[in-house]
Every structure is written in C-alpha cells, then in structure tokens.
Amino acid sequence: MSLNVEDLIGYLKNDLNIEEALDGDTELFSSGLLDSVSMVSLITFIEERTGATIQPGDVTLDNFDTVERIRAYVDSLG
C-alpha cells in the first residue's frame, strides 16, 4: 500500500503532535520539527502501513526531510 501526502501530514499532526502548518515541501528534520525519536516513530508508521522495510542507509535527508520526499521514497519501494 502506498501513502499519500495527506496520510503523512495527518500522522505528523495527529500522532506526532506537530502544530505548525505543513505541506508537501515543509522541511521536517532539518527545521527541527522532527527529532530522532519522532523519526523512528514515523518510520515505524510507514513500515506498518505499507508492509515495506526501510533500510537504515535509506534514512537520509534526501528521502525523509519533506513529506513529498517521503512519499516519493515510499513509492520507489514498490
């Protein structure tokens, strides 16, 4: 199952309690909205929702710093 931008934003706002306005291009980790603990929670959410396994080496800013990058990365997993 793939994730869309709305699914990811909903998780970030509702489960990780991010109150700031978010869109697909909002920087998450480099802006400080996410820390390492919340990143682990986000990765667990993605793996549980999609059945995919995220490799530690794939957890980079290129793949995880915005909702749109996360969506594109998840889509690339097939």
Automatic annotation (TrEMBL):
InterPro entries: ACP-like_sf, PP-bd_ACP
Signal peptide (residue range): none
PROSITE patterns hit by this protein: CARRIER
Domain of life of the native organism: Bacteria
Domain Carrier: 1-78
Name by which UniProt lists this protein: Acyl carrier protein
